[in-house]
Amino acid sequence: MKILLIGYGKMGQAIEAQAISRGHQVVGIIDPARPETQLSQFGPAEADVAIEFTHPDAAFENVKACLQQGLPVVCGSTGWLHHFSEARALAQEKGGALFYASNYSVGVNLFFHFNEYIAAKMHQFGGYDVQVREIHHVHKVDQPSGTALTVAEGIMRHYPEKKRWRNDPAQAPEELAIISERLAETVGTHVVTYTSPVDGLELKHEAYSREGFAHGAVLAAEWLPGHKGVFGMKDLLGL
Ligand SMILES: NC(=O)C1=CN([C@@H]2O[C@H](COP(=O)(O)OP(=O)(O)OC[C@H]3O[C@@H](n4cnc5c(N)ncnc54)[C@H](OP(=O)(O)O)[C@@H]3O)[C@@H](O)[C@H]2O)C=CC1
Ligand SMILES: O=C(O)C1=N[C@H](C(=O)O)C[C@H](O)C1
């Protein structure tokens, strides 16, 4: 497959290694450090799919350009979802293909699945306070992490009394606390904790490297061409 990489930082480089190891060809790299190559030079004749991991402020423009240029796009950038309904509408209008996941790791997507199951059970039995904690490297620009937001949405689906999340340990009864920590080069750790006066229960995912994210993004890129619409890891993994 011919893959266009948009963003060549920590993730772009990890994805390039995965893509090559799976027999794909990287036909272009779009990044501010390589101004000689522009996204406008690429369409379906040049690339089968684009993989976008850049920055919260850049992602929507890149996704829009891919959809307008007829390129199926796998996007992993976080912090831009306030534009997601516009991206969805454009994918529909253009008959294009957009794949989005706040986290491409298969392990994290199992974590999302178990998170919802546990939230439903804990709410049914009651008596526990719930909170979400995410720990990432100090270079991360968005807070809370996209993954923590997906986890929080999964919990809130089963806790109707939790009306919104709050990025602070101090939570009102109608709020779900998401605690963010930035620590050295931590790749990405997410923990859901339930606490009662007599015991505690934790669900934790810890990424040891970026390989799992990159592997999932390449799996999505292999799956997406030929599909039309907006997709996520549930479609890919059948979860
Ligand atoms: N969904 C998932 O599974 C995962 C998502 N992420 C998300 O992916 C994004 C990137 O993460 P990461 O690779 O660690 O970040 P990095 O900062 O290491 O890399 C981002 C790269 O994108 C470049 N860039 C910035 N703007 C543009 C643009 N308009 N077009 C093309 N390239 C651009 C940056 O250049 P410059 O430095 O010059 O600005 C940089 O080289 C983040 O939003 C992160 O949260 C990360 C890991 C997993
Ligand atoms: O910025 C990162 O590094 C990561 N970002 C994603 C997020 O915001 O959830 C996924 C992963 O945790 C790493």
Automatic annotation (TrEMBL):
GO terms for biological process: diaminopimelate biosynthetic process; lysine biosynthetic process via diaminopimelate. It catalyses: (S)-2,3,4,5-tetrahydrodipicolinate + NADP(+) + H2O = (2S,4S)-4-hydroxy-2,3,4,5-tetrahydrodipicolinate + NADPH + H(+); (S)-2,3,4,5-tetrahydrodipicolinate + NAD(+) + H2O = (2S,4S)-4-hydroxy-2,3,4,5-tetrahydrodipicolinate + NADH + H(+). Pfam families: DapB_C (PF05173), DapB_N (PF01113). InterPro entries: DapB_C (IPR022663), DapB_N (IPR000846), DHDPR_bac (IPR023940), NAD(P)-bd_dom_sf (IPR036291). Residues 1-104 form the Dihydrodipicolinate reductase N-terminal domain. GO terms for molecular function: 4-hydroxy-tetrahydrodipicolinate reductase. Gene3D superfamilies: Dihydrodipicolinate Reductase, domain 2, NAD(P)-binding Rossmann-like Domain. Belongs to the DapB family. This is 4-hydroxy-tetrahydrodipicolinate reductase. The lineage of its organism: Bacteria, Pseudomonadati, Bacteroidota, Cytophagia, Cytophagales. The gene is dapB.
